[in-house]
Each structure stands twice: as structure tokens, then as C-alpha cells.
Specification:
single chain, alpha/beta, seven-stranded parallel β-sheet, two-stranded antiparallel sheet, 8 helices, 11 strands, 19% strand
Length: 286
């Protein structure tokens, strides 16, 4: 098996067409490729699929699935954002499009009078947002992020949890000062509570190598500590690349498989006809 369910293309902020991504996936020996364009349906930003383009996106992916049948299994999905009071990743919200899977993600951290983006490329911008909307309280900002993730897990109905500790991007080694201390007792408690919420929600968590491919981190999302906590809770995991261009479709997959094993996992999850199935890690190909 060689699978990836987190793939972006030019319908959102990806750099290449869906066809280009499929052709490269075949070259790389993938057996399953899932497309997951950013969506806030029925809303959008400049990096989400526009509401009026959702049907065209679905038609394109379904057409490619038929064209390349027998060479690769192509699945239709969305990376659906959770924004409190605005949109929730739920299959009933996407019933018009009949996706094979949904990735639930939190990108926006809402505060008093505004929001920051969890993965903004500039720590300076994030710090400014924390000052303006969280009274300069970084701990409150982090707590709100994990609170939103737990809200999404409780209210949502989706397949995979996307990059579960995305805010680690703000501790990018290139920055002179990490935004927060990942070893702090209060932060580690946030991880424990999130792992419990994942177990209760019955979802699969992705091991996401996208932050590595784009040079933000040296390890995947989630951290090894969070991944180990997920393993203790028997939460299934899969390896995804969060690829925005084809060369990164299987970026650091060898690393991710060893990472999973280090956390105590012996098998990975994949989706077949809407249901989780499992395979021994050593049988997944990279």
C-alpha cells in the first residue's frame, strides 16, 4: 500500500492541476490518492475553493478517477475548516457532493474582535494578532486553538483530523525565539486532553509531513509526544503529505513510518468505501 489523503491542487492553494498530481502519484507508485481541497462551504477565502467552484472540483476529481481506473484509486475529499459559528466539517454539509472522506482542520483561532491564522508564515503577524485579540496572552491563544479542535471533534462528522498541533509551526527553528514552550506542563496537558477527545470522536489522525516539506519543521505533525498519547488511546493514524505540489506527494514518508513505530504504532489506517481498514506498517510502501 502507498496512500495519501491530503492533496491540494489549483482549485484551492495548490501549485499544480489535479491531473498533474495524479500523473506524478502514478509515477511514485501510489495506490490511493485522495484530493482534499480547502473548503469552508458555503463560504471561502482566497485560498479555499470558491462556493461556486465546488461542483466543478468534484466533477474533475470524479472524471480523473474514471480515467485512471486500474492505475490508481482516486478519492474525492475536502479539507473542511472549523470556524466557530460559521462552518463545521460534517458530511451532511457536503451531501450535495458525496465526498469519500473529509479532513477536519482548524486554521483560524478566534479571539476578542478578530482572529489569527494558526499557520501564518510570519510569527510577527501571529504575535501581533495575539496582542490585539488575546490581550497578548500566548497561553490563552494556545488554549483557544486546542479548545477549537475539541469543539470540532465534538460537533463535527469527519474522517481525518488534519495537522492536530499546527501551531507548532510557530516554533519553527528559524525563529530566534519559540512562541511557546512545548515542554511546559500546561501545554502537555492540552495534548493529553486532545488525545482523549480524538478517541471519543472515533476519527483517524494524520501524521502530516507538509511542515517538513515546506521547511517549517524537522518532524511531522503531530509531535512525537502527542503521537504517543494518541497511541495510548488507540487512536488510528495514517500518513499524509499535505502536498501542494507533486514533488512532495510522498515527502519524508520513510521518516513518518519510523516516527509512527517509535510512538508505538504497528499498523496504519486507510479508507475503503468509507470505512477504516488497517495494514501493518511494514507493508506500507514508500
Amino acid at each position: 500500500m502507498k496512500t495519501n489523503y491530503h492533496t491540494h491542487c489549483t482549485f484551492c492553494d495548490g501549485k499544480e492541476s489535479a491531473r498533474d498530481m495524479v500523473q506524478k502519484a502514478i509515477e511514485k507508485g501510489f495506490e490511493v490518492l485522495g484530493f482534499s481541497s480547502h473548503s469552508m462551504f458555503p463560504f471561502s477565502t482566497d485560498w479555499h475553493v470558491k462556493p461556486e467552484n465546488h461542483l466543478a472540483y468534484c466533477n474533475e476529481i470524479r472524471s480523473l478517477a474514471k480515467e485512471f481506473e486500474g492505475k490508481i484509486e482516486i478519492q474525492l475529499g475536502f479539507e473542511a475548516d472549523y470556524v466557530r459559528g460559521l462552518c463545521t466539517p460534517r458530511f451532511d454539509r457536503y451531501s450535495d457532493f458525496s465526498p469519500d472522506f473529509l479532513i477536519g482542520s482548524v486554521h483560524f483561532i478566534t479571539g476578542d474582535g478578530g482572529f489569527t491564522e494558526a499557520d501564518d508564515s510570519s510569527q510577527e503577524n501571529v504575535r501581533a494578532g495575539i496582542k490585539d485579540f488575546f490581550k497578548d496572552n500566548i497561553k490563552d491563544w494556545v488554549h483557544t486553538y486546542f479548545l477549537l479542535e475539541k469543539e470540532m471533534l465534538e460537533k463535527g462528522d469527519f474522517t481525518f483530523l488534519g495537522h492536530p498541533d499546527l501551531i507548532r509551526k510557530q516554533n519553527n527553528p528559524k525563529y530566534n525565539t519559540p512562541l511557546f514552550d512545548e515542554n511546559a506542563t500546561w501545554y502537555r496537558e492540552e495534548l493529553r486532553e486532545l488525545a482523549k477527545a480524538c478517541k471519543k470522536a472515533g476519527i483517524c489522525v494524520e501524521i502530516n509531513t507538509g511542515g517538513m516539506a515546506r521547511g517549517y519543521l524537522n518532524t511531522p505533525y503531530p509531535s512525537l509526544e502527542l503521537l504517543s498519547l494518541l497511541q495510548e488511546q488507540n487512536v488510528p493514524v495514517t500518513v499524509n503529505s499535505d502536498a501542494h505540489q507533486s514533488e512532495y506527494l510522498d515527502f519524508a514518508f520513510d521518516f513518518a513510518l519510523e516516527y509512527a513505530k517509535k510512538a508505538g504504532y504497528t499498523e496504519l489506517c486507510f479508507v475503503k468505501e468509507g470505512h477504516f481498514q488497517f495494514q501493518k506498517i511494514d507493508l506500507f510502501r514508500t
